């Protein structure tokens, strides 16, 4: 009970008002927009597979209604197309515009020659940090209350290096690579993020008791860096324990920093805790480029075309993008309108136990935008 | 209507009704997907300028008022000839920043009198510098109903760098009778103008970018520009890139202008080509343009002449300014309004009943604007 109170007090103090609980945090780093003309940004939109295309349509609708100064350059990438030309085109488009919003691209599991296009995109653009902000939304049914945790995941190396081979039949080697340089920059990102947003604690998740060298290096680098940030408490936790703690007492976490694979698992747990894949957005930040997508990367193919999929995660991804582009007014506007829709008006899609369609959520958010704008005048 | 309301109440889920705020759930009803309208009027800055500028701008304001286009205006007066009444550059910048980063502007006459000692930059240059409007974009498009010499349909865009090169305002007299004018070219500025041209081509679905230069003579200065364009072109595999020397470009423009799509060039060449090309499709009165920076955009006629002789006579052709306003609406994502305005102007000209003097008629600026208002349908 005590911990619950303190957490909610912490949330309230940090954010000022309840509606801003889901507002995207400030993103560290200096950014120079690559394709901004006359005050309007150009952003690459990759609709992807499944529900992606309809979600991009929702975002377009919201953006034009709110006069968001963003134009989209749409590039189609999907796993169904043969050849790599479309992926090259998408990469060039992101390199030109600097920023992309993306639906997930389906990966074929069975074909070893087919590299995941999502992974390819991340490694080619060097999007080293995957950042998720998992926060409970009061009216959304979840087992725990007052979760407010930021998950920062290394996105380019570790188990995802794509180095696997069969030495002799029946023996497969997968190589996990960690480098000091890459750990340093993810750690720097985590500490800067925490400092910028007034966070108090960073938890490093690892398995250094077994992988003494690989994860040991990860732990050592972050621990060393924590010396520079006196105001932020540092602790470490082994990944299996972290999973257990997360489902039993998630309120204890503030900012978590993780290597690639653990990050993947932990972020799915955290997303599940706060209400499922339809709610949480994820940012992929590199030194030059950034790609915004949903937190758990599912295509939702079974829901496509039925107007059922929860658009919240995608709307929040677009808000993350606006924050990154320094369009703070519009980011807060849409975020608060969305909060109103979800919390005050309880317009919930089926995944949250409601009866509403995706376009209901979008239309309702637009009405709230209008109300907020009117109130401001 | 009634059934709509009922179904929406029914659709508020059982979970919401069971909750504490049943009343608010009932009060709230979801409407049918609404048309894409806008939440409020948008404000823009207007800078009337000198000569016929004010007449043209007021003509646009009149059209906006009569047709219900959702725009509001804030006027900033800038002038070099009437310098005592002129507002400051800082004021103008602040106003544009406040009003959606957008302005509609008439031409500002360059005064031959130097008000500030040693100031070689004109008001236009200073405004451009302080807003960092590095690109000037002029859209050359034939309008049905305007007779041209070549009789061909033209539709191309001229992108001009307008912050460096010959316009650096660095001129000095070394010894009496010997003057040096410095033309400055820098890699970052070449890069951003080239990128702008290609980004514009991508956005508007154009196929080809032509870089105009004189690198055969100015091997370093224009050479840098040309090489940078070539480099940037590699990022845009879907757009064809070619280069052309400025003198040849002029000849090609008057003999085979239909070959061009997007042209990108340094400052002075751009100035000349802008005016040459405007002449191809009907003159200064019909060609819209815009000056673009990273954060700001100013919409102004493509060839920037104040037309002092016609001041107060209501004979100037407002087409360019009205098309600028239409482009501004498109920029603000008010596409329906922008397209409707553009169509009504084209309709008036195509019909040919109301023509200003430059197009061989006797109509006044105001009569032309009235004709546009009559034709406006949305």
Automatic annotation (TrEMBL), chain A:
One GO term (biological process): isocitrate metabolic process
Family annotation (PROSITE patterns): IDH_IMDH
GO CC annotations on file: mitochondrion
Keyword Transit peptide annotated: yes
Keyword annotations: Mitochondrion, Transit peptide, Tricarboxylic acid cycle
UniProt superkingdom: Eukaryota
Keyword field contains Mitochondrion: yes
Pfam families: Iso_dh
Domain called Isopropylmalate dehydrogenase-like: residue spans: 42-365
NCBIfam families tied to this protein: mito_nad_idh (TIGR00175)
Similarity comment: family membership: Belongs to the isocitrate and isopropylmalate dehydrogenases family.
Name recorded for this polypeptide: Isocitrate dehydrogenase [NAD] subunit, mitochondrial
Species annotation: Caenorhabditis auriculariae
Upper classification of the organism: Eukaryota, Metazoa, Ecdysozoa, Nematoda, Chromadorea
TrEMBL record, chain B:
Principal cellular location given in the protein's record: mitochondrion
Source domain of life: Eukaryota
Pfam families in UniProt: Iso_dh
GO CC annotation: mitochondrion
Compartments it resides in: Mitochondrion
InterPro entries: IsoCit/isopropylmalate_DH_CS (IPR019818), Isocitrate_DH_NAD (IPR004434), IsoPropMal-DH-like_dom (IPR024084)
Residue ranges annotated for the Isopropylmalate dehydrogenase-like domain, each copy included: 43-372
GO molecular function (one): magnesium ion binding
GO biological process, one term: isocitrate metabolic process
Keywords: Mitochondrion, Transit peptide, Tricarboxylic acid cycle
NCBIfam families xrefs: mito_nad_idh
Recorded family membership: Belongs to the isocitrate and isopropylmalate dehydrogenases family.
Name of this protein: Isocitrate dehydrogenase [NAD] subunit, mitochondrial
Organism: Caenorhabditis auriculariae
């Amino acid at each position: 009970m005590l911990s619950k109170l303190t957490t909610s007090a912490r949330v309230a103090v940090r954010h000022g008002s309840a509606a801003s609980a889901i507002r995207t945090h400030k993103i560290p780093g200096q950014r120079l927009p690559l394709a901004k003309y006359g005050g309007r940004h150009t952003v690459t939109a990759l609709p992807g597979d499944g529900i992606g295309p309809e979600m991009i349509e929702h975002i377009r609708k919201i953006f034009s209604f709110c006069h968001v100064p963003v134009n989209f350059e749409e590039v189609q990438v999907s796993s169904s197309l043969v050849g790599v030309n479309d992926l090259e085109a998408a990469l060039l488009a992101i390199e030109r515009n600097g920023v992309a919003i993306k639906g997930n691209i389906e990966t074929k599991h069975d074909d070893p020659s087919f590299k995941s296009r999502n992974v390819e995109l991340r490694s080619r653009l060097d999007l080293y940090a995957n950042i998720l902000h998992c926060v409970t939304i009061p009216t959304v049914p979840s087992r725990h209350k007052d979760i407010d945790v930021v998950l920062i995941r290394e996105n380019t190396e570790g188990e995802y290096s794509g180095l696997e081979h069969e030495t002799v039949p029946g023996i497969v080697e997968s190589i996990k690579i960690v480098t000091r340089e890459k750990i340093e920059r993810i750690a720097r990102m985590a500490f800067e993020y925490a400092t910028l947003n007034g966070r108090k604690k960073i938890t490093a998740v690892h398995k250094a008791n077994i992988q003494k060298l690989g994860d040991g290096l990860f732990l050592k680098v972050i621990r060393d860096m924590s010396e520079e940030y006196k105001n932020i408490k540092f602790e470490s936790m082994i990944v299996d324990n972290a999973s257990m703690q997360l489902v039993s007492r998630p309120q204890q976490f503030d900012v978590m920093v993780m290597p690639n694979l653990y990050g993947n698992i932990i972020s799915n747990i955290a997303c599940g805790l706060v209400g499922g894949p339809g709610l949480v957005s994820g940012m992929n930040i590199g030194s030059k480029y950034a790609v915004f997508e949903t937190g758990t990367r599912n295509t939702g193919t079974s829901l496509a075309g039925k107007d059922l999929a929860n658009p919240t995660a995608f709307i929040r991804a677009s808000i993350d993008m606006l924050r990154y582009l320094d369009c703070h007014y519009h980011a807060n506007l849409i975020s608060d309108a969305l909060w109103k829709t979800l919390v005050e008006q309880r317009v919930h899609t089926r995944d949250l136990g409601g009866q509403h369609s995706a376009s209901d959520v979008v239309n309702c958010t637009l009405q709230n935008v209008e109300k907020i704008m009117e109130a401001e005048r | 209507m009634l059934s709509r309301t009922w179904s929406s109440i029914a659709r508020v889920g059982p979970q919401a009704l069971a909750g504490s705020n049943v009343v608010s759930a009932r009060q709230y009803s979801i409407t049918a997907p609404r048309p894409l309208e806008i939440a409020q009027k948008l404000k823009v800055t207007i800078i009337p300028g000198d000569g016929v500028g004010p007449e043209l701008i007021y003509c646009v304001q009149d059209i906006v008022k009569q047709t219900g286009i959702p725009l509001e205006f804030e006027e900033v007066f800038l002038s070099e000839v009437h310098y005592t009444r002129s507002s400051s550059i800082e004021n103008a910048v602040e106003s544009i920043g406040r009003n959606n980063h957008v302005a509609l502007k008439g031409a500002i006459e360059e005064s031959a009198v130097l008000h500030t000692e040693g100031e070689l930059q004109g008001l236009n240059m200073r405004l451009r510098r302080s807003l960092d409007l590095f690109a000037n974009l002029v859209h050359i498009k034939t309008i049905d109903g305007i007779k041209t010499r070549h009789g061909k349909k033209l539709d191309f865009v001229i992108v001009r760098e307008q912050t460096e090169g010959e316009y650096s305002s660095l001129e000095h007299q070394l010894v009496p009778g010997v003057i040096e004018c410095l033309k400055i070219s820098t890699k970052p500025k070449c890069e951003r103008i080239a990128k702008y041209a290609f980004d514009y081509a991508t956005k508007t679905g154009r196929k080809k970018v032509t870089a105009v230069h004189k690198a055969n003579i100015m091997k370093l200065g224009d050479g840098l520009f040309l090489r940078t364009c070539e480099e940037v072109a590699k990022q845009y595999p879907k757009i064809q890139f070619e280069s052309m020397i400025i003198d040849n470009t002029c000849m090609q423009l008057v003999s085979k202008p239909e070959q061009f799509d997007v042209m990108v060039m340094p400052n002075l060449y751009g100035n000349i080509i802008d005016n040459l090309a405007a002449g191809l499709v009907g003159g200064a009165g019909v060609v819209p343009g815009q000056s673009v920076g990273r954060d700001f955009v100013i919409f102004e006629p493509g060839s920037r002449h104040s037309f002092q002789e016609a001041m107060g006579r209501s004979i100037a052709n407002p087409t360019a300014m009205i098309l600028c306003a239409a482009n501004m609406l498109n920029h603000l994502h008010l596409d329906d309004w922008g397209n409707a305005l553009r169509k009504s102007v084209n309709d008036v000209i195509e019909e040919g009943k109301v023509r200003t003097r430059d197009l061989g008629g006797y109509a006044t600026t105001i009569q032309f604007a009235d004709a546009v208002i009559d034709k406006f349908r949305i």
